[in-house]
Amino acid sequence: MPNNFFEKHEFSMGMFAAGIAVIMFIMFSAGVVCFLAILSLQTLFGEFTSKEFGILLVSSELIMTLSIVVPNVLIFRGKPRAAKVNKINIYFQFVCYLLFLFTFENKNDWFLLSFVIFPLLANWLMASAKYQAFLAYHEALRKDPIGFRRSLAKKMFE
Questions:
Q1: Which of 1, 22, 94, 136 is deepest in the core (most CB within 10 A)?
Q2: What's this model's pTM, rounded to 2 decimal places?
Q3: Number of Cβ within a 10 Å radius of residue 90
Q4: In 3D, which of 66, 84, 72 has the Cα closest to residue 138?
Q5: Over the stretch 114-128, which tens digit does the pLDDT of each residue have?
Q6: Half-sphere exposure of residue 130, counting CA atoms within 13 Å on the CB side?
Q7: C-beta separation of 121 from 114 below 8 A
Q8: 62-86 tens-digit pLDDT
Q9: Dist CA 119 CA 129 (whole Å)
Q10: Distance in angstroms (rounded) separating the CA atoms of residues 111 and 64
């Protein structure tokens, strides 16, 4: 398996940058989505008190954070199928942004909708070869850690 990784993928720092960037873009977008969800609820149901606003925001942020952190921990543990949960999370964020388009009337809120670029970038990076190499790297590392590290050392010192 370790030799297959080096035959199929290019080992570079770019693959790690792509993997971390995907996580960051999903996290940034999730934070904005939660904030916009609370604002749209205010538009539909009336003003919340600061305590209600805070409770709703913290609880929605906690749920979104867990839905991002758990799959990415699984990816780092060598389970590349967990990337499908990231895809589902990105599509959920797209749907939320689409729904926010219909609920916002204030021009200041339209600025917040420009943050749709984050899930777009995450989706684009997830389709790249560097992100696929990032997934394959962690999978190969977990399947045969000693053999993979030997192959990596041999590859680096050649």
A1: 22
A2: 0.85
A3: 22
A4: 72
A5: 888 999 999 999 999
A6: 15
A7: no
A8: 999 999 999 999 999 989 899 999 9
A9: 18
A10: 22
